[in-house]
Amino acid sequence: MTGATGRVALVTGASSGIGAATARLLAARGMRVVVNYLRSGTAAEEVVAGIEAAGGQAMAVQADVREAAAVESMIEQVQAAWGGIDVLVHNALIPYVIKPFQDMTWEELGGKLDDEMRAAFAVAKAVLPAMTEQGRGRIIYLGTGLSRRPREGMIALGTAKAALAQFARYLAQELGPRGITVNVVEPGPVEDTRMADVFDEEHKQRQVAATPLGRLAHPGDVAQAVAFYASEDNAFMTGTTAAVNGGMSLY
């Protein structure tokens, strides 16, 4: 990837799943990667160790991305070591409930919305000064196909991620003149993630049957799309959404 060497990428929620796969791939392509985590310090350090063993550069930094002060502290740690953030991949999964609207409280729905947008807002605000100063930057938000295609019990996640997707488009419009691109990667169901264990095997097989490519995504499939948006190859795409779902959205 042209020009990747030395660029600094912050991946939130990078101790496992899509975040870990993305951190490894960006590091393999020459970026210095910040592996953010909330509680899984041991897992985050394992991701860092794997990257370093492969010849890459990484550091693990703890922060609750819902808290602006914690995010600012994380950015300060990174700047002291490596300078400003060139690439932000906001992947951290904010907890949510899976239940019908009828059984849901406003605290459950509104709380997810507030947490989702608070985190998206905080991380963008924190990386913006350095990106503006250098006249370039890449911001990639992880969304979900559920923001467009409702599924039973997923109203909290789907509604929050729909708000996130529109927020990203507004950022793309405003930040484009500064040389900063903002895009969204929307996976369908993904294997080998915490969410993958929520549903039973029958549910999974129905999802596979609805996917023209005949399987669910792996974290690495999603990471490949993120890595494109993070790269210098992506010079003229902003405000777009990549659906990484094996064709499931065709139906």
TrEMBL record:
Enzyme Commission code: 1.1.1.100
Gene3D superfamilies cross-referenced by the UniProt entry: NAD(P)-binding Rossmann-like Domain
GO MF annotation terms: 3-oxoacyl-[acyl-carrier-protein] reductase (NADPH) activity
Oxidoreductase recorded as keyword: yes
Organism ancestry: Bacteria, Bacillati, Actinomycetota, Actinomycetes, Streptosporangiales
Top EC class for this record: oxidoreductase
Ranges where the Ketoreductase domain occurs: 7-193
Protein known as: 3-oxoacyl-[acyl-carrier protein] reductase
Family note: Belongs to the short-chain dehydrogenases/reductases (SDR) family.
Oxidoreductase is among the record's keywords: yes
Annotated organism of origin: Streptosporangium album
Key words, A-Z: Oxidoreductase
